[in-house]
Design goal:
mainly beta; five-stranded antiparallel β-sheet; Methylamine Dehydrogenase, Chain H; 51% strand; single chain; WD40_repeat_dom_sf; 31 strands; diphthine methylesterase activity
């Protein structure tokens, strides 16, 4: 257990099904759930919970059942009110949030892109190029999907085991790079203009699977363009210097990443979520969901992307795996899986 000062808990409640991911939008929390039944059969839902202005009272108002369990939920950073879920049945769904009533969701796309037995483990939007998604799977694949053209490109080098997370770089000159992490301890970097083979592969930085990735963007660590954070089952968060040298269009560049810092968080680093205040308020904090050790608020040096420290710790009633978290303004919400606990905190 961390010795960092705890955050104040505002409220706690239970979901109907085990939650593994969540997003906050306005005064609503969307919880993606995952239920395993006999064999490989899984199902899930988006539970919609509304909260008051203080974050002390939550009420479940809607429940959208899905044919497959939900492993990840993400908001489109370039189109407010659009949310994407990825599923255990090889499909992703794009939802439109009603602008008048954010508890109401409508499907605008349900796309079956893999075999129905393939679990999509994560989904992320590009932060600079509209309508591009990166998806990862239990089969080790990392793919980029163009929503405008309904076209998918699978990266040529796959992971040897489950691929847990994928992230686009978005800084100028790096916007064609996609980074993936897997159970094989590898990080792979592909240039999506020439995806036939990875331009960089490393299996020595981490001593267990790579399960979260956060790359420098205009909203997080913008002055350190080459900074990438990774989270691993080995309980460490790492700050990596990418130092990518781009090539001409159609040709691979080169990359020489190195680990700048590695910090033990005492729990598998499943999620890394930067402050919603971003650079506008110079809020240098990142929320980390640490599996069996609750969640932690990390601080860092905005100029270098390292000097990572644990600023606050919170666990409360999270007695099982803390998989999901998000924050808006000063409200942090985290969820844990088997105990079906959701807790709100004052950031």
């Amino acid at each position: 257990m961390s010795s960092a000062p705890p955050l104040q808990r505002l409220s706690a409640f239970k979901t109907d099904l085990p939650p593994c991911c969540l997003r906050i939008y306005k005064n609503v929390v969307y919880l993606g759930t995952y239920k395993l039944v006999e064999g490989d059969n899984r199902y899930g839902s988006i539970e919609v919970w509304q909260h008051d202005s203080n974050g002390t009272n939550f009420k479940k108002v809607r429940d959208y059942s899905t044919k497959g369990a939900i492993l990840d939920l993400k908001m489109d950073p370039l189109e407010p009110g659009i949310m994407c879920s990825c599923h255990s049945t090889g499909n992703f769904i794009i939802w439109k949030i009603d602008p008048e009533d954010p508890t109401v969701l409508s499907k605008i796309m349900d796309n079956q892109i893999y075999d129905s037995k393939t679990l999509i483990t994560s989904i992320n939007y590009h932060k600079a190029i509209p309508h591009k998604l990166v998806l990862t799977t239990t089969t080790g694949l990392c793919s980029v999907y163009d929503i405008n053209n309904n076209q998918m490109e699978t990266m040529g080098t796959s992971h040897d085991l489950e691929c847990w997370y994928g992230e686009f770089c978005s800084q100028p000159g790096l916007e064609y790079l996609v980074i993936s992490g897997g159970d094989d301890r590898k990080i792979l970097i592909h240039d999506i203009r020439s995806p036939e083979a990875a331009i960089f592969s490393n299996s020595t930085f981490h001593t267990a699977g790579v399960v979260s990735i956060l790359a420098s963007s205009k909203d997080w660590c913008p002055s350190s363009l080459y900074t990438v954070w990774t989270g691993s089952y080995d309980d460490h968060v790492r700050s990596i210097d990418l130092r990518y040298i781009p090539g001409e269009v159609g040709r691979r560049g080169s990359a020489f990443p190195r680990v700048k810092q590695s910090l033990d968080l005492d729990g598998g680093v499943w999620k890394l979520i930067p402050s919603p205040y971003g650079v506008s308020k110079k809020d240098c904090r990142v929320l980390s969901c640490c599996m069996y050790d609750g969640a932690k608020m990390l601080s860092y040096n905005a100029d270098t992307g390292d000097d990572i420290q644990v600023k606050n710790y919170f666990k409360g009633d999270h007695s099982s795996i803390c998989y999901g978290g998000d924050w808006k303004d000063d409200l942090v919400v985290t969820c844990s899986f088997y105990d079906k606990i959701v807790q709100a905190w004052n950031a």
